[in-house]
Amino acid sequence: AKLTAERLELTFAASGSANQLVASGNVVTDRTLPGKPVETATAQNGSAQLQGSGGWSQIELHGEVRVKEGDRSAQGDRVVLVRSAQTATLTGNAVVRDATTETRAPRITFVQSSGEIRAEGGVQSSDFATKGTGLQLAAMPANISGDTLRSNSKTGRALYMGHARLWQGDSVLEADSIELLRDAKTLNASGNVRGVFPQNPGSGVTPARTLTVQQRAPNKVKLWHITAGTLTYNDAENRAHLGKNVVAQSAEQEIRAPQMDLYFTRSEKGAAASGGAAASATAPLGAQQISRAVATGGVIVEQGTRRATAERGEYTAVEGKFVMTGGNPTIFDASEGTTSGRQLTFFLADDTIIVDSEKGSRTLTKHRVEK
Asked: Domain named Organic solvent tolerance-like N-terminal: which ranges (predicted)?
């Protein structure tokens, strides 16, 4: 390492060998590992612990500390460089930035040899990339927080542990840990997973009721609240797989199942294909919205006084439709009783049930007096 400053003071041990170099005023250090960018640190003051055999063992800088390596820069109140571990540890309002991200924490450690970053004491990161890298739940910066962070610029992996939380647009995800895999554009959440995701506005109606709904106020973005043991989101597939006691709840229904896949579509500004321009205008351009949900392994759907069970349940947002199959699908309604069939289809907007059985298909409708 190379150290320069306006003033340098060398101290000696009783043995007569130099043991410390004290620097003050525009302190600059440079150190390089083979095949790595130069790591440059600047500060107001600093000191270097010297080895009896020559060279240094540790450098401490303080006062307006700045560190730069390649496209990554950092700042803090104090930095400690340890030669043997090839680490630089920033403390005191520590911040690290690269081309697309910023991370803040009380303590941030860089491992120069591996490219690893360790942040502790309450971490908050922002990802400003709105396309091309990472996963995108909305066309706006993503924010991620946790008690600790382990990330690696080489592998593109970031693991937030302890009270992990991600929020981007209308979407929010919380879990014991959240792992981001940049190159695979995948997110893995584990332990006490809780999430909020917007639904594709759709029409929420059967074709016969379209005119009635068009005369009503424009749809607002509907939010789904989910809980599960695990969640894996793949950006390329626009799909989230949830496992372990999954519950998905909206204002209209609740779905419970051992596992569930949520399929997303991106909102488009001014799109009128689903929900009309007024509805899509309530969601940010490019926001991921739930368009379909497929639950398996023994499904329970509750909507008001209606309760449906089957081995598999599929919900389509644009139609507001449930299709229940497998394991003797059954719907129980407090006023209409029990209906079973090989396949049951029902709609959230009205009380029509389409029953498919070995005897054919029939439609059941509960007649209501419109107010």
From this structure: 17-114, 143-191, 225-346
